Amino acid sequence: MFCSMTCFGFHPEVVGVLDDILTKFKEEHKEDRKIECLLPNQFSKLLENERFKMKLYPAEEQHNGLTAPGDEDVVKKMLSEKII
Hints:
Layout: E1 2-3, H1 12-28, H2 39-48, E2 63-64, H3 71-82
Parallel strand pairs: 1-2
C-alpha cells in the first residue's frame, strides 16, 4: 500500500487558460474572501468542453488518503511495511 497522491502535469497552454479563469474568478468574487476557485472543477469544465484532453495513468496499488488527523500514522505504518 502507498499513500495516494494526485499529480497533474499541465502543458503551459493549459496553465495559461487556468490562470485566466482564476483571474476572472477573483475579479468576480473580490468581495467574498471565503469562496474558492477549485482546480478540479475548472479543469473538468475544460475537458467537458473539449478544450483539452487528459491522459490517465491508473495505479494498481491500494491507496490511502492523507487528509484527516489520524491518517499520518496509518500511512507511516503502511509505508514502513513496504520498506525492505
